[in-house]
Design goal:
The chain is about 20% helix and about 35% strand. It is of the alpha+beta class. It has a single domain (about 15-320), classed as Electron Transport, Fmn-binding Protein, Chain A (Pnp Oxidase, Chain A). The strands form 3 sheets. Strands 9, 10, 11, 12, 13, 14, 15 and 16 form an 8-stranded antiparallel β-sheet that branches. Strand 5 (about 105-115) and strand 6 form a beta hairpin. Helix 1 crosses helix 6 (about 240-245). The radius of gyration is 22 Å and the shape is globular. The chain starts with 13 loop residues before the first helix and ends in an 11-residue tail after the last helix.
Length: about 350
């Protein structure tokens, strides 16, 4: 048996590998992934989670639908008894779908993000225990993420942090109402949960939650049940896109940072790889389109307030839907002019 045969399985599943091949980074990412993706928490990650006042969670409900959630707490509410365990001493907020999806044995994705420093780290694991005061995660994978497209914000903990179960006004629908639509259309940040739960135990699988950022308005609401946004160049892991390729479902969380309103959505997702709009939207590698199945909006839910700092400098290299529409319109006008017959009845000369 050769040394290659004896190597552990790839840290990437089939969907992630297919996208890496499409983007021409497969061999490079296999080498990087084997170094960077660990089966335990490095000490610097353990210290990082202990500093945070909130964490993002991705989980799947009983119908196989991913949801993205945010769990707040006072700094220190996350601890690591050892390098394979992340303990979260907080319960989900009132109205959060995580109240139903958080069950022992469930696959779970974790994103720790520090807005003022743009630092972020990821964990994939399973729920080892659920308690009245929190839950414990058995870590199976841990890795860092680059700070791209994160807007800086300072975070203030509010008194309600100690009463996550406090009743709030909750709206449920299969579509975006006017308030939810405004939050989505003005967003410069979103969180997306996906999952890959099929395959053998040797194949990396589980739930995931990731961050996406852009200029305000980078999410385009197409109608009351769908929206689309550009996917910019990232760390080339393609966790989100690879999951959607194999399991076209996603959950989203939008945060109204000033009021604390939260909008949770779950439904179908697709990746738009090419076409005129992809090519026209400056910086876009592809588009992700979402079709809502259920929308939950909780008013003044988040016991945190965020003070905006500055946009990611990388956003200077990205476009907008207005910019993309102008490019598409110009290209259509140019194509039409080429097809228009000249005065002799033939095609226009070039």
């Amino acid at each position: 048996m050769t040394d290659v045969d004896m190597r552990p399985p790839s840290p990437f599943h089939e969907g992630e590998r297919l996208v890496q091949e499409r983007m021409g980074v497969r061999d490079k990412m296999e080498k990087i992934g084997r170094r960077a993706i660990r089966d335990r928490l490095p000490d610097r990650h353990r210290e990082f989670y202990a500093e945070l006042p909130f964490v993002l969670i991705g989980a799947v409900d009983g119908r196989g639908r991913p949801w993205a959630s945010l769990v707040p707490g006072r700094a220190g509410f996350m601890t690591t008894p050892d390098d394979r365990t992340l303990d979260i001493a907080a319960r989900p907020l009132f109205g959060d779908p995580l109240n139903e999806t958080l069950t022992e044995g469930a696959y779970i994705g974790v994103l720790g993000i520090q807005p003022h420093s743009r630092r972020r780290n990821r964990v994939v694991g399973r729920v080892a225990a659920v308690r009245s005061d929190g839950f414990t995660i058995a870590v199976t994978r841990a890795f860092g993420n680059c700070p791209q497209y994160i807007q800086t914000r300072e975070v203030e903990v509010r008194p309600g942090i100690d009463r996550p179960e406090a009743v709030r006004t909750v709206g449920r629908s299969d579509a975006l109402d006017a308030s939810a639509r405004r939050i989505v259309e003005r967003a410069d940040t979103l969180f997306i949960a996906t999952a890959h739960l099929d395959g053998s135990e040797a194949c990396p699988r589980g739930a995931d939650v990731s961050h996406r950022g852009g200029k305000p308005g980078f999410v385009k609401v197409e109608d009351e049940r769908s929206f689309v946004f550009p996917d910019f160049s990232g760390n080339f892991h393609f966790n989100t896109v690879g999951n959607i390729l194999l399991n076209p479902k996603a959950g989203f969380l939008f945060v109204e940072f000033e009021t604390g309103d939260l909008v949770y959505l779950t439904g179908g997702a697709e990746v738009v790889w090419d076409g005129g709009t992809v090519e026209a939207f400056r910086g876009a590698q592809r588009l992700i389109r979402f079709f809502a199945d259920e929308v939950v909006r909780v008013e003044r839910s988040l016991p945190l307030r965020f003070t905006f700092g500055e946009y990611s400098p990388l956003l200077e290299n990205t476009g907008s839907w207005t910019q993309a529409s102008r490019v598409v319109a110009a290209e259509r006008a140019w194509s039409a002019s080429l097809a228009k017959p000249d005065s002799r009845g033939g095609p226009a000369s070039t």
